[in-house]
Write a structure and sequence with these properties.
It is a single chain. By secondary structure, the chain is of the alpha/beta class. It has a single domain, classed as TIM Barrel (Alpha-Beta Barrel). Helices cover about 55% and strands about 15% of the residues. The protein has 11 helices and 8 strands. The protein has an 8-stranded parallel beta barrel, surrounded by 6 helices. β7, α9 and β8 form a beta-alpha-beta unit. The N and C termini lie far apart (about 50 Å).
Length: about 220
Amino acid sequence: MELFLDTAEVDEVKEIASWGILDGVTTNPSLIKKSGRDFKKVIKEIAEICDGPISAEVTSMDSEGMIKEGLELKSELPENVIIKVPCTPEGLIATKELSSRGIGVNVTLIFSASQALMAAKAGAMYVSPFVGRIDDIGHEGMDLIAQIMRIWEQYPEIETKVLAASIRHPTHILECLQLGAHTATMPTKIFRQLMKHPLTDSGIERFLSDWADVENAGNA
């Protein structure tokens, strides 16, 4: 599974990239606003740290505007930047046009298997179902991942990757792994939680304590 970081904070990208496991980064207008920085400068800095796909989202709602923005972003930003568009009819038009030009597209805000299929047929490189937001309305977000993966299994000609988004806790990641999702994007805190375990901490403390005893005995 590809592990993507969902952030617009450059320091967070540096931290997770230093672990040697970061495959890509997703951003969105809300994350850019939270960073308080210039959109293109942030994307450029992130793309220079991580050589995997970096999603830069368009803000136009009509296909003509999305295509124009996508082409501008591809011309001004590093090669590994891909274009993120919403899952709407206009977004599908933009996806078809951009993908036909060899530009990677991440179709976001997907909440049904039918939306994922339409985006894949339009040529999306990634489709991003939002697990956590489905949980928020009282349904099971992971059921959507399961539905999409079953469809993908029936049609091996589909090359679009399923990118699980709106990840809220480590269990979401483990369930995505079990279901065979190709990619998951998560905030920095989830990366940290995935690496944290009390038995690891207690084991390190015990090893260090025992080694201190060894050193003290040798100096006696």
